[in-house]
Amino acid sequence: MAGDEAGATIDRLSAWVRTESPTHLAASVNAMMDLVEAEATEAAIAAERLPGRQGLGDALLLRAGPRTDAAGVLILSHLDTVHPLGTAADGLPVRVEGDRLFGPGAYDMKGGAYLSLQAFKAVAKGRSRLPLAFLFTPDEEIGSPTTRAPIEDLARRSAYALVTEPARSGGKVVTARKGVGRFEVKVEGRPAHAGSRHEDGRSAIQEAARQILGVEALTNYGLGVTTTVGLLSGGTAVNVVPQHCRFSVDLRVANAADGAAFEAAILGLEAHNPDVTVMVSGGMNRPPYERTEGTGRLFDQARALAAEHGLDLREAPKAGGGSDGNFTAALGVPTLDGLGVDGDGAHTLKEYALLSSIAPRQRLMTRLLETLG
After folding, report:
1. Domain containing 220 — which CATH number?
2. What is the count of structural domains for the chain?
3. Domain encompassing residue 213
4. Taking CA atoms, which of 32, 238, 300, 319 is between 20 and 30 Å from 176?
5. Got the DSSP string for 11-64?
6. Do residues 200 and 190 make contact, with C-beta atoms less than 8 angstroms apart?
7. In this predicted model, what pLDDT tens digit does every residue of 74-123 receive, in sequence order?
8. How far apart are the first and last CA of the chain?
């Protein structure tokens, strides 16, 4: 990338990163959508704004390529971030240090969204073999509650899905991810004075403690299954036998069969104490993204295209975190993920994107959009 072009890329991507977009601040997420929509409109690309729901931001759908009924290519990027508003000014200032662009969302995943938009703009000028659909979403960081349906609808009409989540260490792409389940467990006991009427009480916290040990014991590293109780709350005062307690469970599984089995196990929790009630809600919110033959062939094509420009593209081990690629892969669509920038520090105050990774990853995305089909 020439000096002037590289400087312009840094400036524009820095502006994206400074436009903070925490998931639950719809206006902030929509400000990012405005930037993308303006750039697409300037490039004469058809853009459709999908109004936000449930208090979340809008989504944005761009279309290009031949207008046929052929199954096309779906590109997925999310523009929401986990960092609270103000992080760009204080905890993680936007700045360039050597090859690193620091800032909230630079790596996860505004860098990947940015370079993919540039590739999309280039190929939109009549260079793709298949119809192209590029969906920018506002809620991936919280499980895509409002955009799963449109993602799946678009996926059913697609031959391939390309996801611009950040690359793994050293620029590796993702061809498989674990499925994710989320559950809320509510325990209700019987309150009593902890001193004078202790025997009348039935401790919700005591029951929850036993349940938590059982849930955590479901972890099976051999199967690639993990269960984590990450949030816990309960009780009203130190001198009251607690009536209420609740905790949250994170489940990760490697395949659909284990997803169904462990989901059933958690939903089927029963109280140890007959005087206490245990209520469980939730379930699998991202199906496993398993590596199929189709995804393997898609990776092989990407690897060959990367080699044209001297990039040695490799696969990462199965990722523990989920993405919107889980939805497309579960529908049988060959899915390649981790096509965004290289870097590190996602979801931390040390997050950065490697500037030197932008040009080669953009070239790879451009070549994929040109040659798929």
Report:
1. 3.30.70.360
2. 2
3. 179-286
4. 32
5. HHHHHHHHS--BTT-HHHHHHHHHHHHHHHHHTT-EEEEE---TT---EEEEEE
6. yes
7. 999 999 999 999 999 999 999 999 999 999 999 999 999 999 999 999 99
8. 28
